[in-house]
Amino acid sequence: MRVISGHYVFTGKEFIKNGTVEIDSSGKIVSVGSLGDSIVEKEGTEFFNGIIIPGFVNAHCHIELSHMKGQIPQHSGMTAFCNSVISYRNSDVNEQISAMYEADKLMENEGIVAVGDISNNDLSALMKKDSRLIYHTFVETLNLNPCRAEENIVNARIVKQTFENEGLRVSITPHAPYSLSEKLFAKSVTEGNNSGIISIHNEESCDEMELFAKKQGKMRDFFGKDMDDFLPKYDNPLHRILKYIAPETSLLLIHNTHTNEQDYRQTLKQNRKTTWVLCPASNLYIENNLPDVNMFAKLNAHVAIGTDSLSSNTNLSILQELKILDSKFPETGLQNLLRWATLNGAEALNLDSELGSFDLGKRPGVFVLSNIDFRNMRLTENSQIKRVKS
Ligand SMILES: [Zn+2]
Known about the structure:
Helix 4 runs parallel beside helix 5 and helix 12 packs across helix 13. 35% of the residues lie in helices and 25% in strands. It is an alpha/beta fold. The site of zinc ion (ZN) has 6 residues, from loops.
């Protein structure tokens, strides 16, 4: 048994001043308490300078795009970004796989213990099996040609089976409201509903909003007439997602850069388990824009944090994402930010029976967050995360 303490313990929900966490040799949480008013080191208690927190959950990543690091110009907008990603997809396979192993290590060193990862193929399966992190893989479907919907779903099921054969958590999910025919969209959401979880990019760019509102613009020009089978039916990306979603499916909406309060309220009517996943570094990279974080905080929305991929980010660090949010939206508060980055992500990925908080019996990992501005309870440029050595 070890008793670990710090200036604060963040349990996954709240701070305990001079808190303590007791773990057994397997890392299982045995008790959570407090040293009281004094931080005089007690015998048998290891004291760390900083906040003791559970491991971070990265709710959105595309590890298979790791080889594209530094390749795509910043601030070029969504349509140009999609075009670049497509052109780099066929790089050397060994190069792609070694970049994924490096990215996995990068996340481990950044205090991340679980990842919701989008995959278009099975190249990441062995890496995920070897990893210390827990992955939920979302096999992504996208195609605007309705004649190919059946073939696309069959292919996605084959990729899904490869991950299942390795004993990994996996489900099928649609890419975004603008990139699937109506037939493929309906089939993909049904697959996701059957698995109880869907992760979909939502209201990410100006181009996407313009496409649905005006039926024209850069995205319309890029994808051409293929959108005619669904575009007239929806005036907002979220309406298309909510049409097919089951109320009990855990719905991860990714980015939400252009989401407003009306959209938020719409989800309350149709889905009980919506999580708003924010990836601020990626939003700054692609569009130099950020979601209305103050609105999400004010509405007490279920928010989680993702890094997106190295094609649109310089790092895969949840702490880096939190530093951006803390500096741009200081009223959010560190307690909200840490909850978004730990327990909420675990809940969204249905991993909260094991991860995300210091509840008894879980094995969430124990980390120390150091270089904190304790006077204002804010992160600093130099804030760091380290695993409490086992
Ligand atoms: Zn993404």
